[in-house]
Amino acid sequence: MRIRKGKGNTMKQPMKKYFSAALCLFALSTMLFASACSNTGGADSGGDGAVDVVMWGWGEEWGFAFEAYMEAEAPDVNFEYVAVDGDEYVQKLQAAVSAGTRLPDIAALEMDSRGQLMSLGIFENLESPPYGLDRSEIMDFLIPLCTNSEGQVVGVETQPAPGGLAYRRELAKEYLGTDDPSELESKLQTWDDFIALGKEVKEKSGGKVYMFASIDEAAFILTSQNSQPFVTEDGKSNLTAALKGGFETTKEMYDAGIVDVLGDQTPAWNASLSGGEHIFYACPTWYPFYVIEPNDPEGIGQWGIISPPGGGYNMGGTLFGIPSEAGTEASRLEAWKFIKWLTLSEAGAEWIRDNWDSASSYKPIYSDPGFFEGQVNPYFEMNLPEAFLRISQDVTTRPITKYDTIVVDELMPQGYRDIEAGKSVDEIMAGLEKSFKEQAGDLKG
Fold it and tell me: Which domain holds residue 402?
């Protein structure tokens, strides 16, 4: 067994900070086994007769997962991890396709650019031979997120990202009367309930305490609870049907003065996590480790997580897919064996639970009510995987399209700023529809 590390930039975002020691060991092992082909992105076969498997990614913890797989299953493979900056990933993959150069056997499809990559038509249909994926083994809400426009499953989620609401316990208890998650969910069954209680909070606090710190996260949750695609099957804009309702409720919150205007992920927003003026925050599975705890290190036991009014939503995630022209038939099959082990097996689900403090895509494992028993997070003082698994039973998702980057990264933030500027929702949608057609270029109407 050899592990090689290709050249590239550092990881875009770690999956769990507790990996630091393990990642150091992984980095050391990869350097020890580095070889000349590390500079080229990998060869098709190893000199020792083993099959070469190449992964491109921005998180070395994925390579660590492969190392765990190799230790568990002892496949006859040489593994090469090539670090690629997440912001350059789509461009690098497109360039390799155009040039006909070596593609990775394992490619990472991050949520923001997933539709762009799927539209290239380069990924294997994992339900076809020799892979034989059974989509009934995948958590239901993930199916639209791993399916291309032809209805083919072309990847499997490495770490599902269902989203809930994180809340500061002391503020919830003071202003909402309880910090118990079940009682809070009972009080907040609808967004109308949320707005009504928000008005009470505003009055009790003299306008100093808000339900959300930013319009951005409120609107993202609300628009994500709509399954309408951004584009219809015949190529026409469906933006108004997908966004208008969420924007209307967001504007109602803003006009009521219960949502602050701190820009999402700005220094002021980050600092608000350790303050005492904002009760709720969007919270997908990765937020506890990379957003909340780093920005509120003294907040041990001060946070809870509930399902939002209207159910959960998806926020983030990364698929592993297999390019059809990558390596050899043997290397692609070995890549699938790893993907299946990590994402669609009991052993992989246990590894993800124990190392990433998270749930996996593998639905059958959750028939065991004790699967997450004892997984109490020391910072939150609660069982996070269990909490997110419960939220994941009622998550709304929309189909992936090649236009997602335009809508999510460009148009939706413009809509948030337009709400702050006092525009009506009809004005906002008219402007976004116009911009969408200009930026997309190929919409039919």
Answer: 162-315+382-440
